[in-house]
Amino acid sequence: MTDLAATKEAARKAAFARRATAQAAAGPGQSALLSSVLAGYRGVPLSGYMPIRTEINPLPAMAEAAAYGPVAIPVIQAKGEPLDFSRWEPDMPLKPGPFGAQIPETDDFFEPEILIVPLVAFTRDGGRLGYGGGFYDRTLERLRARRATLAIGFAFAAQQADTLPQEPTDQPLDLIVTEREVIDIARA
């Protein structure tokens, strides 16, 4: 394991512990600030995610957004490839996908312009540490090469880190929304 890989793994382990503690203490309304941010983008195609493990839950905000425009969830097609995004609606039939996340039973793919990005840890300057597969980095690179794409990291405030190991391929977040605040990277 390289030094960078070992540093990332140590950062993930610490962040998973903080996230689990935050999730255990979380009450209702975790996505209220996310809903208010998304209200400014009504009708813009977006992608959320189906929460797994101890991830903060974006589903109420996604359901609200789906009343105004298309909402998708990520679908992993293959290791080392960018994500694709299939249309999601509240209460639609889902099936198990890779890594335990649910995906639509029937594919209806489109490209979102806004991505609500799950994460393990973040920094206030837009750094993100994910699970290590690089799916969101490859996806954001592909989408940003085609058009402006807004990446909104969604996490518990406890997932903030002072610093994170970053690589040139790591794609920055534009906004970070927690249960407590909205961090606009351009203004931070």
Automatic annotation (TrEMBL):
Reactions that this protein is recorded to catalyse: (6S)-5-formyl-5,6,7,8-tetrahydrofolate + ATP = (6R)-5,10-methenyltetrahydrofolate + ADP + phosphate
MF GO annotations: 5-formyltetrahydrofolate cyclo-ligase activity; ATP binding; metal ion binding
Gene Ontology biological-process entries: folic acid-containing compound biosynthetic process; tetrahydrofolate interconversion
Cofactor: Mg(2+)
Protein name: 5-formyltetrahydrofolate cyclo-ligase
UniProt KW keywords: ATP-binding, Ligase, Magnesium, Metal-binding, Nucleotide-binding
E.C. number: 6.3.3.2
Pfam families reported for this sequence: 5-FTHF_cyc-lig
Domain of life: Bacteria
Keyword field contains Magnesium: yes
Family designation: Belongs to the 5-formyltetrahydrofolate cyclo-ligase family.
InterPro entries associated with the record: FTHF_cligase, FTHF_cligase-like_sf, NagB/RpiA_transferase-like
EC primary class: ligase
